[in-house]
Amino acid sequence: MVEVEALTKAYPDLESGQFLALDNVDFHVGPGEIFGLLGPNGAGKTTALRILSTVLQPTSGFARVNGFDVTTHPDEVRYSIGFVSNNTAIYDRMTAWEMVEYFGKLHGIPEERLNQRMEEIFKQLQMEEIRNIAGGRMSTGMKQKVSIARAIVHDPPVLVFDEASLGLDVLVARALLKIIESFREQGKCIIFSTHIMREVEKLCDRVGILYRGRMLATGSLPELAETYKNNDFEELFFDLLNQSDQQRRHETALAASSPSLGSEARSQR
Amino acid sequence: MNWKHVQLIYKREMIDQLRDRRTIFTITILPLLLYPLLGMLMMQVAQFHRESSVKVAVLGYQNWPEELPLLDESANIALNSVSDETRRLLKFELQSMPSHKTDMMAYARELMASNTVDAVLVVKPELAAIATGKVDNDRFTETGMPKTDAAKIDASDTQLTSPAKDVSSTTLEASSGEGLILISNLARDQSTMAQGRLSRLIDRWWDNWRTKKMVKAGLAVSLSEPIQLKVVDTSVSSVRQAVRWSKVLPFVMLVWALTGAFYPAVDLCAGEKERGTLETLLSSPARRREIVWGKLLTINTFSIGSALLNLMSMQFTAGLVVRNLVAGGTGDIAQALGPMPFHSLGWLLLLLLPMSAFFSALALAVAALAKSTKEGQYYLMPLLLVTLPLVGLPMIPSMELNLGTCLIPVSGAVFLVRALIEGRYQEAIVHLPIVILVTVFCCWMAIRWAVRQFESESVMFSEGGRWDLRTWLRHLWRDRQDTARPSIALMAGVMILVIKFFAQFMISPSISIVTSMLLVQLGMILLPCVVMAFLLTRNPRRALRIHRVQINHIFAAVLIGFALHPSYVVLGDAITSVYPIAPETLQMLSKFESNLFDKPLWECLVLLAILPAVCEELAYRGFIFGGLLRQQGLLRAIIVSALLFGFTHAVLQQSITASVMGLILGFIAWRTGGVICTIIVHGINNSLSLTMGWCGRQKLEVPDGLSWIFSSSGDSWSYQPTWHFTSIVIAIAMMLILFQRSRRTERNVLAEMA
Question: Is residue B521 part of a domain?
């Protein structure tokens, strides 16, 4: 469903000349699977997901969503994906119903089918009470529900949640995880980006640990525990981050002694 | 493009904006309230102006001729022919000089400074003598013209004025004498009114006095004004009013069209970025182009709506106010202006449609740069500063619709609509196609820019962050490339313009041509580029595009140089006929030429042909063009470098010709991969202009061998018509050869662009 190969995204940067937000990242996610993209702030999670949703263009590498390349077939990719961002992104002056209807129409769903679909979604996400409430008057939890409803209105095979639980209270976050689990049961391919390890342990079938643009490890939790000989996932995560920092320092020292490697090392902050 | 998406986005944005109180207030409510409030204020001011009486102190009234008094014992106006309104509005207070004071003028100033009166009328003892005709005849010339005038007296009197009090004085001359002096303070409105009213009263008194004297002397009263100029105005009052309104209405309407476009643009772009909804929309099936069109139509609707509401509110209010002012007997201006002509609305609407589309696209593209609504507000002022001069240009007196003005974006359309409002239909129809072309081109460019902004990741997802000079300078040095960055190239072009602007005020006009040319070409044009090439690029030679050149290119360049010049001359003549050079500029140029052509030809050629060709080509087709070629695209690099090259020429007409030449030179620079060929073309072009001018000035005859190319008449040389035609054919042929035979250099250039 989602295949990412050697994905690289570079930005011009005043301090280092070039900043690699993603550096040769690989991962794949199948149908009915939740892939957790774990990493601290600035790891490159949002950049990767923005490339998958065709909002950004990769500098090099490939990303395919539902079989469509994000660079050559962006239109098909956008029809195949539902994107829930971390800032809820709700129109303040539109009601929940209007908002979901708007995105449903943008996806070209016929009116009758759209109304039926919206009724189902509003019931599934328990949003009937907020149907006529304007976005500006909603709580964060309500907004996130609307955001999810908007993302799934066209029933996409791939769903992307970019730190969707950020800023939600415990109850709403729990409800959100339940909803995401229900999507897995529907056979959807889900990418769930977060920096909260507990959510990953609870929800994800497989995990990718992203740090400073590099994918440090991918696999299911038991696989990672076996590979790195550590059953404590939190400890494993920090060990990997420390190892990466050490390796980077080593590369920087090498670069200082060899000018030709300088610019390359500089760009990898 | 999926128009269903555009329609959906438009509908949503419209609903969203109509639910926003701030937008509704700024765009719709404010105009509806603004004009009635302004009208009310205007009427109150007019009423105040109409009803407010002024007080004038009269000093030395005992000097007034008893035969025809101005005031009675109670200081009321004694003239019978004066209306009750004037008596009510002009109050007098007779003052006598205190016994311990002797200087009447000084005391008058003291009275004025005390602020108890609005003006002081000083009646000098010599008034009676002047009025009775015992005037000093020395003050008149034989033709009867006075030797001194009021301005002179006024100026001398102002010298007596205390600067701290800023009291200006005016002398009212009864006949030609200096018997009456009015002390007023023009910084105070009441004093200004007092001056006007008193002037009219004194004129009236003088008319009475003169009539009385002429009757007494048995002369016909008409002798005092034997010839009267009768003015017959053939214009219809409605057309006169339309002409006056036509100067105001487009300005007001277009300012509102821009303001009406900008606020929704900021909310729909920067506001959406801030709220995060733009990212959601970008990941929806709607393409960027569709999103831009949807938003653009919304902004356009608000722009049109806002401008129309303003116009209608203004028309309604202006109609009422003018009617009221005219009925109240005030306001010559109101009477002259009349109510706003209703038919003008139709023509204004015609102007509004393309202009609001242009402003909307411009506002959307600018608003896309902002990351938040707050930041977006900052961009309104620069946008206004760029567009207002274009909107305001047609308001300048004596500016009319012609081939030159109709080419100016925005202004051309305003000139056209002015002509339509004023009923000059034939003139308007002649210029209509050009205005349409210019306007459509501007709209297209603005829309394209807006689309590009939405397609640019750096614009849509720029995180901003802190910028500091040290990091930036370090980045410029550390990350320098073989050629200049586009921003550096652009900066070099702008820097040359700025240096040249300031230098024209600093360089003494008395310096020699040699020094002046060396200073301009080497110091102001070449030096900035060379310094930048050495400091900010890794390969200065490549940055200045000094490449090895193919021999066939040199051959083509020489032929192009000779073959292009006749067309260049024709173009220059055509431009000066459309935009004639001002007589002062012509005089200056002619003086420069006469100084220059006194020198030997070789010196002229070195100074004005070879030196500029080398310096300007290294700067414009070398450093700037090469820098712009990276990332900016070929066409933009050619156009921008040509425009910058054109702007460096001081005279507008030269700038236009140079810009066109810059386009051709840019093309040659692209095809040949360097500046050597453009230096040759530029040098030959300059050399031919100079040689023809020099030979003409020296009154040299065309040699027989060249008579098939040149002809001489008087002090100028020109091309033979047959050579005009032949040269065009040669130029086109050479250009085609250049286009065909340089695949190798094209590959080099493409590598340079990458």
Answer: no
B584 contacts chain A (CB < 8 A): no
How distant is the Cα of A105 from the closest Cα of chain B, in angstroms? 8
pLDDT at B611: 94
- Domain ranges, residue B387: 3-28+236-460
CB pairs under 8 A between A and B: 72
pLDDT at B165 over 70: no
CA distance A16 to chain B (A): 8
pLDDT band at B330 (very low <50, low <70, confident <90, very high): low
Same structural domain for residues B167 and B293? Answer: no
**Is the Cα dihedral B275, B281, B284, B288 positive or negative?**
negative
Q: How many CB atoms lie within 10 A of CB B332?
A: 9
Is B523 part of any domain? no
* Contact between A103 and B284 using a beta-carbon 8 Å cutoff: yes
Element housing A43 (H / E): none
Q: What pLDDT was estimated at residue B347?
A: 80
Our CA-based measurement puts residue A256 at a distance from the nearest CA of chain B, in whole angstroms, of 15
Nearest CA in chain A to B273: A89
**HSE of B429 in the Cβ direction (CA atoms, 13 Å)?**
4
Give me the residues paired with residue A21 across strands.
Answer: none
Per residue in A121-159, pLDDT (tens digit) is: 888 888 888 888 998 888 888 888 888 889 888 889 999
Number of structural domains in chain B = 3
pLDDT for B166 equals 41
Which domain CATH number covers A170? Answer: 3.40.50.300
Contact B277 A90 (CB under 8 A): yes
Q: Give SS3 for B674.
A: coil
Q: Does B466 touch chain A (CB under 8 A)?
A: no
Q: How many CB atoms lie within 10 A of CB B218?
A: 6
State the total domains in chain A. 1
Closest Cα in chain B to A103: B284
Q: What is the reported pLDDT for B500?
A: 87
Domain interval for residue A58: 2-266
The pLDDT score that the predictor gives to residue B371 is: 83
Note whether B145 and B100 are same-domain residues.
yes
Test mutation, B2, B280, B630, chain A, max A CBs within 10 A: B280
> Can you tell me the ipTM of this complex?
0.88
> Judging by beta carbons within 10 Å of its beta carbon (0-12, 13-18, 19+), is residue A119 exposed, middle or buried?
exposed
SS3 B712: strand
Model confidence pLDDT, tens digit, residues B578-618: 778 878 888 888 888 888 888 888 888 998 899 999 999 99
* Averaged pLDDT for residues B212-226: 79
**Is the same domain home to B615 and B714?**
yes
Mark yes or no for CB contact B475/A92 under 8 Å. no
Partner A contacted by B275 (CB < 8 A): yes
Interface test with B, best of A14, A53, A144 (most B CBs within 10 A): A14
Is the model's pLDDT at B173 over the cut of 90? no
Contact (CB<8Å) B275/A94:
no
Q: What is the mean pLDDT of chain B?
A: 81
Note whether B657 and B528 are within 8 A (CB).
no
Instruction: Choose among A14, A56, A91: nearest Cβ to B471.
Output: A14
- Based on C-alpha coordinates, what's the Rg of chain B? 35
* In a domain? residue B490: no
Q: Cβ separation of B457 and A57 shorter than 8 Å?
A: yes
Average pLDDT rounded to a whole number, residues A196-201: 84
Specify the higher pLDDT residue, B631 or B445: B445
Determine the Cα–Cα distance for residues B419 and B416; give it in Å rounded to an integer. 5
Tell me how far the alpha carbon of residue A154 is from its chain's centroid: 19
Judge: B457–A83 Cβ closer than 8 Å, yes or no. no
